[in-house]
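User: Please predict the structure of the protein below. I'd like the answer in structure-token form so I can feed it into my own downstream comparison script.

Assistant: Understood. Taking the following sequence of 269 residues as input:
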Amino acid sequence: MRKLDINEFKICQILGRIFQKSITLSNLSSPTFIKRFMNYEGSKCFFDKSYLSLSSNEEDIIFEINALYKESKSRILYGENQMYWVGYIYGALSFLYDLPAKTVYGYFPGKQIIKYYNIYHTFDIEEAAERMMENINYDNGDYVSKGVRLYKKLIVLDKLKELIGKKVHVYIDRPLGSVHPEHENIVYEVNYGHIKNFRAPDNEYQDAYVLGIETPIEEFDGIAYAIINRSNDEEDKLIVVEESKEYTDTEIEENVSFQEKYFKHKIIR
């Protein structure tokens, strides 16, 4: 996905600071301030980037909202780092997906957005936005278990990266020409199996594609060459090739597209 441009980056920083300053300057609780800000007509200048040409101070918008709404009876206040991230990620979601502030808030209300902080605040902002958008339709609110699953996937991804360039032994589960046991429309165009170096997030051994072998096989010794990093699935896949063989990203895609076309992914070397 695209990166934030320089002006979008500046606005995201400004939003982060405004949300952070609201902790001490707003007469509203943090979740209420988030709601009021994201639905206030006066905040549009941030999301259409016209604020950059204005001379107003960052605090002005907080005081405007204070004047419009009664002080919150409940003083639920989020941390400074949390509020900075919330403001920043709202801006990123709006710019990257061309969404109005109200729509972004509708997807990620104040009392929910803060829960995403614990999962995504260490991610690059664009990747955090992408993963949050991917989860909109099937998020069951179980943020804790989702965070655990994501953490496991990141651990396994680090282990896969450490394997690149090293020899591995692949046990073939689905040889070339076999049919997927659950999806008969998927016919394996390469040998596919697993390595026993470690287990994937689903607690099964790590899956691997074997490229370059034109006949069905049972086992294979090769070099861990690349990773298929799926963003909409818990499991990533290892690419294993014969020693001294090289493949472009396009060639890898051509070899595994019979199955990977169903997943959003990128190739990591």
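That's the full token string. The beta strands are 167-174, 191-199, 205-210, 219-230, 237-241, 265-268.
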